[in-house]
UniProtKB/TrEMBL annotation:
Enzyme class: hydrolase
PANTHER family, sorted: ACYLPHOSPHATASE (PTHR47268)
Protein name: Acylphosphatase
UniProt-listed InterPro entries: Acylphosphatase, Acylphosphatase-like_dom, Acylphosphatase-like_dom_sf, Acylphosphatase_CS
Length: 92
């Protein structure tokens, strides 16, 4: 199991980015969460099998159809064993 913590910048709020990220993560059977940040970015935590995590990580660079991603910052982190499923959280 591996985990990634990512920040996605660009036109990523108001374009179904969070819901689409959840769908991508659930399709790959990942755990984690996604939320909007006050500065306009989206923050994502993905964890699960490495191949599946990297699949969704790659998707973050384009996002859903209406998104315009300009930057993705990704850090590998230790998995959070308390997570169960994938959630869309309220903004930070």
């Amino acid at each position: 199991m591996m985990a990634l913590h990512a920040f996605v910048d660009g036109r990523v709020q108001g374009v179904w980015f969070r819901q689409s990220t959840r769908e991508q993560a659930e399709n790959q059977r990942l755990q984690g969460w996604v939320r909007n940040l006050a500065d306009g970015r989206v923050e994502v935590w993905l964890q699960g099998e490495a191949v599946a995590v990297h699949h969704v990580e790659t998707w973050l660079y384009s996002g859903p159809e209406l998104a315009v991603v300009t930057e993705v910052i990704v850090e590998e982190v230790s998995p959070d064993l308390s997570l169960n499923g994938f959630e869309v959280l309220d903004g930070a």
